[in-house]
Amino acid sequence: MFVDRHLPTFAFIVGMLCAHPLLGDVIHVNDGSQVVGTIEGFSGGKVKISTTFAGAIEIDLAVVSSIETDERLTVAMESGDRLIGPVGRTGEGAAVVETAQGPVPIDFDRVTAVWKVGQPSPEEAALVAKYKPNWSATIEGGFRMQEGNRQTREARGRFDLLRTTSEDRLLFYIAAEYADQNEIRNTNEYKGGVHYENNVSDRRYWYTRLDLEFDEFEDLDLRATVAAGGGHFWIKKPNHMLKTRAGVGYRHESYMTGVTFDDVTLDLGLDYMVDLSSFCRLTHAASYSPSIEEVNNYRLNFDTALVFPLGDSKAWKLKLGVLNSYNSMPQPGIVKLDNTYYANVMLAIK
Description:
The protein is mainly β and 350 residues long. It has two domains: 4-129, no CATH class; 134-349, Beta Barrel (Lipocalin), CATH 2.40.128. 6% of the residues lie in helices and 65% in strands. It has two helices and 22 strands. The chain has helices spanning 7-17, 122-131; strands spanning 25-29, 34-43, 46-51, 55-60, 64-68, 72-77, 82-89, 95-99, 102-105, 111-116, 134-146, 152-164, 168-181, 184-199, 204-215, 220-237, 240-255, 260-277, 280-290, 298-309, 316-327, 337-349. It is elongated and about 95 Å long.
């Protein structure tokens, strides 16, 4: 037999799992009154229903005795049976499912789930949501031009495309920097790559990455790095994140002079992010990749920046940062440390 005390719980389940507003819904209140309209949803212990006489009103679930709807629902029972049909009630107020074989009383102690006919079950919907990818992109760029005694042009840009699920993260990126002075080029650099991370647990993950680089003024024709390993989130919050990684890699370098190098390397890295306030975010990324055979041959990179929103927009941001790149064994005539100070405008697309 149906127990009245379970009706509020059932009403909540039905309201949450029906994705679209229902037509011709009836809410029965404990004092015997009825409210007819369109149920819009359930939240905060209240059911919201749109009516023709009073607009949208909210009713406390504690005073709701039952509901009725013309929508066909699937009601899953503990036994594994599934009843399909509109939900109604008998003259005594007991809840029933109007199946093709007639009304079937339901005991909500034995109901495990309720969902609309034609839609996935809650378990299927949860599984789809878990692996449903979320794509986002970030475009950033900066430009400076000077005319007069000197003619200077500088431009830089970066494009990131990120795919995330609850289980993994996939990043594609490409970046470029160009500058000339008095029509003589002095900077011409391109980078790109693919990074992939897959969760082993809530905090641990494994990763693999591929990075490619060209730099005319380091005489670098190609630097290709492939690496794989494991990582750990030490802090994992939406506004505060710290993670590290450690792995092994393979680095190939070919220079315009005809010289080539191939090394097996360690791959160590750190990524940090924190919201310093509602309008300022600090980001920091560090990587260290020494050769296993020759430890004093290594590359060390830091990218530190502050990100500010531009006006009230959540999409447009200003990024002020410094990029430090250190090569312990550069080609002859090339300095070991490059420092780049930048101010970029960012556009976040979600």
